Task: structure prediction
Amino acid sequence: QLDCTLAWLGTWARADALLSTDYNHTGKSMRKWALGSMSGSWLRLKFSNSQPLAAHRAEAELIEKWFARLAEQTVRDWSDLPLEKINNHSYWAAWSVMATAVATDRRDLFDWAVKEYKVGANQVDAQGFLPNELKRQQRALAYHNYALPPLSMIASFALVNGVDLRQENNGALKRLGDKVLAGVKDPQIFEQKNGKEQDMKDLKEDMKFAWLEPFCTLYTCAPDVIEKKRDMQPFKTFRLGGDLTKVYDPSHEKG
Result:
């Protein structure tokens, strides 16, 4: 598996894959999603106890330099957007840059991700809604839920690196998480807000709630939320680097 990973990523790195500046919105969206997935998984490889990359320093350096270039392009892609255009895409971009910042030890990338997190957190209103995701009409609740994984992961990574974002905008992340959990129980909360009956299809997938792993280490989750989390574990999502339960709740045993 290690040989395959190094061969595949090394081939992409040498080809400057995903670095084209000729792109549309879908292209730049795919770039940051791919980077977040790869850097998130790479972190697990790089910092695992067995130090598997120690014998492959040259190849690892090549790959990490490519990740850094991808992150720099992602910063260019998603910087300085008007507030009405900043939504979950920007949060996912910030997560990909945060994961890469930790993988490559780049404080400038880390600081950009934190800055973008603060923009996102300050979009959360007093009731816990994201105005730009309410525009998704019948999918507003699903998109609020989709905004939580990158925001929760950024806050988690920031905290262990000495930056506490939990209280940004009066605990905005907690407010958002609580609103989504309330909406899953009673979708009418969102229907009353934007006038649209909510499409619950996405919210029937356990993996969509992987954000609960970092979220419940950042804040004290209620007993019923912990129970819900336990019922859904393990959480495995490639967008956040793999098995989050193994990272955040390693004592969990399914069954």
Q: What stands out?
A: The first helix runs from residue 2 to 14. The longest strand covers residues 236-237. The radius of gyration is 18 Å.
